[in-house]
Amino acid sequence: MRASRADTRRRRATTAWAAALLVVLGGVVTASGVERPERPGVRLAFRDTPRTHYLRALDAPGKEPPWGQQPEAFYVALEANRTSPGRVPTQAEKIKVTFDLSDAKAVAVSLDPGDRLDGCMWSGALVTCTPKDSTTGKVKDIASGEYAYAAHLHLLPKKQVPKGPVGSLKITVTSSNAPTIRHTTQLVNGTPHLTTRGGAGGSLPDPIEPGSELKLRPAFGNDGEIGIESDLSIVVDVKGQATLRRQYRNCRYDQADAPKKAVCTIPGPLSVGAAYETDRPFTAVVDKTGSHGLITSTLYPAPNTPSGDLLPASAPRGTGAPIGFRPTDSSRFQPFDKDELSFLTTRRYDQQVNGFTLKGKVGDEISMDVMDVDGYFDGDTYLTLPEGLTLIGHRDGESGDDPFCEYYGKKRRTVLCPTPLNVHPTLRFRIDKRVEGARGTVFVKPDPEHPDPDLTNNTAPITMEYLD
Length: 468
Description:
mainly beta
């Protein structure tokens, strides 16, 4: 039987309406007529790719720069993010990184075996890298919510190139399913070597009173080959039982009340041979029941401040006059780019802990330093992990000098992180499943030889944040 024209029109109208409805609901119809969810979009972004990169001058003296300031390798790290909410897995695929050195004719590229593992090839002024997964050998993909190093180069100034700016490096990143992104880095021949007054591992010589204030004037110098011409960032970070006062209007703070972190932008430059301290102090207030803490001050060229240290533009600012620099004596400075100060209070027998949050995706294996949560511990720490996690302790073949948190007791519910000696123990775990509202605890036992004046702060919660 042949269908009438009216029947055909009704079927076409019905099919068009159903297809439109599926588009609205986020689905598509395959040739077999089965609905399949649309693949979510993904975008790439540069993560901590520097705005200024310093090259080791060929005529530089043999002095090694401070740890963390080695300038030879230039890395490109990328992060992938979804363009719409949802839980359908997505990833940026078939990534390619192109470096254009046509504006930096005084710079040479050295491709070592590690660069070739990134799939890098050099032709004229262009270096093209198709990074590969070291396990599968396939072109590297980056899953949404993650970041990865995509390529790195060794850049060297050519002979008899004067110190100073030597052009720019243009970077283009493409993907088969993400929009193209670009970045420009200014190249400078010569490296600054930062120094500090306190260096790493500094501590107050005597215990202080709980509730007291600490006045801090971070100080930095430049003992390098070239000055930092950009603005400067000072990041002040407090761990343990203390907070900062929200003081200066050129500083952002991580929260309006009792902040733990400040990021301040101060006009440069920091010339070779110069040394400065802040012209006003940062004020840290020790908790009234506080027993210990750690305060870290780190200096960066402002355009190169790592994303992990930045605060959003919406973060609260101080209301007082801006903090700046004033000259100071650098004769006793040490080769570090951060200043650390730990303290103990007279409340030494009050064992206490702070709660913290574990973050990750289902299937992730995560390692973290529990001591970073609270800045300082002088005894064993005990954990009960949130539901859905499995502890991964010391593996066969790993050095016995590297301590790990391990299960403690027959029921394997309690985890012991041993007293830190030269190295802090590592908490390593796997997220097996998502359990909404899962919580655990971190706790310390009272000192058996001395009364603990406050048992209420010996235990704190561990919460979960799932990244998907």
